[in-house]
Amino acid sequence: MADVSVDALKKVKSALSTFQNDISGISLRANSQSQNCLSACHQKVNDTQAKIDELNAEISKLNNTIATFDEQTNAALKQIQQLEKSIPQMEQQIKKVEGNISSLQNQLSALQAQLADAEDNETRQQIQAQINMVMQQISSLQHERSELEYQIKNAEQQKASLQQKVSELKSEKARCEQQLAITKKRNNQYQQKFDRLKTLLGTVRSNLDAYINATQKFENNSVSSTGQNIQAVDKCISHIEEYLSAVL
Amino acid sequence: MNEYTQQIKRDLDDFQAAVQKLSSGVKTASSLWRDPKYSQLSSELAQIANSSKSVITTGDKSCETINKFFKIASEEY
Predict the structure, then answer these.
(1) How far apart are CA A238 and CA A9, in angstroms?
(2) Quick one: B58 exposed, middle or buried, by C-beta within 10 A (0-12, 13-18, 19+)?
(3) What is the pTM (predicted TM-score) of this model?
(4) N or C: which terminal CB in chain B sees fewer CB atoms within 10 Å?
(5) What is the set of domains in chain A, with CATH numbers?
(6) Rounded distance, CA A59 to CA A62, Å?
(7) How far is Cα B26 from Cα A9, in angstroms, rounded to an integer?
């Protein structure tokens, strides 16, 4: 036996209609939100890949800089070696020149003694000519010695400057190697982050798919079910109203 | 929590509220509808409420992994 009022049925119809409205479009919203979310996730993965590329370029640049420092250091060390070889040779040359100067100075002393003893004018002129020649040779050798001393001093300065350059290059290389180690570590960390994000992106995608499917299933079932119920309630209301309006 | 999980959470809250509202709306008619048809309707609504759980579960699980993803994405070295 039926035991219901039109008021009760209207309340039920209202609740069902409100629910239908509330639920309508839920799967579309879930789908749209999922697409937006996945797009943002892909962007994060791409950003991380870009960071890895940037760090790889930095590593390559640092390796090139270190190689250049090595080349410059080796070139400077080679120059130092050459200078270290040439300085003793020049010192040896100075000793030889000084020996020659000393020998010529002895000759000069002997000639000056001969000149003092010479009596005739012709002999004196000949000795004087020899003295002049020896003095010219001494002067030339003294000039050669000065030139060699200057070259040694210059070579010593070059050597010191190159040693300073080597020291600076080694220090710069050490700084670059330190930077390289830090960059490699960061690159490794970003690579690990990239791998974790890629794995997690798969899980996010499958979880969102499950969510979309659940909302679609729920929406289809509940919209159909509530629709049928609303129709049934409407029918009940019209039957009761027809019954109530009947004139006996 | 990021903007994506905030949106999903908001929708899940609205969804739960809609299911709750349907249940309480139909219950208000219970004192004026005392025949077996009401029980049938009530039983159908219980099924709807039950199937709504999978929406909540999958939504919560999605939020959990999305939050985890964005937490890792925010890491800087």
Answers:
(1) 11
(2) buried
(3) 0.82
(4) N
(5) 6-245 (1.10.287.950)
(6) 5
(7) 9
Which of A208, A221, A226, A230 is the best substitution to test chain B (most B C-beta atoms within 10 A)?
A208
Which residues in chain A are contacts of B34 at CB distance < 8 A?
A: 3-4
Which residue, among A226, A89, A214, has the nearest Cα to B57 in the 3D structure?
A214
Which of A19, A164, A47, A199 shows the shortest CA–CA distance to B22?
A19
Q: How far apart are CA A130 and CA A119, in angstroms?
A: 16
Exposure of A240 by Cβ count < 10 A (0-12 exposed, 13-18 middle, 19+ buried)? middle
Residues from chain A that touch B7, judged by Cβ atoms under 8 A, are 33
φ and ψ of A4, to 5 deg: -150, 155
**Residue A113 structure tokens:** 């003694």
B32, amino acid identity: L
Question: What residue ranges in A122-227 does DSSP mark as E strands?
Answer: none
Tokens of A72: 């410059």
pLDDT tens profile A166-180: 999 999 999 999 999
Instruction: Give the per-residue pLDDT at B15.
Output: 96
CA distance B51 to chain A (A): 7
Measured in angstroms, the CA of B31 and the nearest CA of chain A are apart by 8
Interface predicted TM-score of the whole assembly (ipTM), two decimals = 0.95
Given a contact cutoff of 8 angstroms between Cβ atoms, the answer to whether A73 and A169 are in contact is yes
